[in-house]
Design brief:
Elements lengths: L12 E6 L5 E6 L9 E5 L1 H12 L4 H4 L5 H9 L3 H8 L12
Antiparallel strand pairs: 1-2, 2-3
């Protein structure tokens, strides 16, 4: 278990379903504190096997799933869609961003 997963309100929850055709759908619910709907991503059997390696902590997600877009990997990581991620993380050009001087 990854450290962030030990605090339920800060960790996304995941469940996987076998589609019966060799592919798997991974459902990811963002951390409870965001109060957002579940996202899903369909993976081929090869992608699913690499997803499992990443989940075990054996490899970084970008190394395990380079064929997925950064947005798709973010969904697997956090359950946040691209729009939600930018809404909560802010835009680096946003004047309200704490990283902006």
């Amino acid at each position: 278990m990854k450290p962030i997963e030990r605090v339920p309100s800060f960790a996304p929850t995941r469940r996987e379903e076998d589609n019966g055709d060799g592919s798997w759908t991974v459902f990811i619910r963002p951390p409870a504190m965001f109060d957002l709907p579940e996202q899903s991503l369909r993976l081929t059997i090869d992608q699913y096997q690499r997803y499992l390696l990443w989940r075990k902590g054996n490899i970084l997600i970008q190394e395990a799933l380079p064929d997925l877009s950064p947005i798709e990997r973010e969904i697997l990581l956090t359950g946040l869609s691209n729009e939600d991620f930018h809404k909560f993380a802010g835009d680096e050009n946003d004047d309200d961003n704490m990283g902006t001087i």
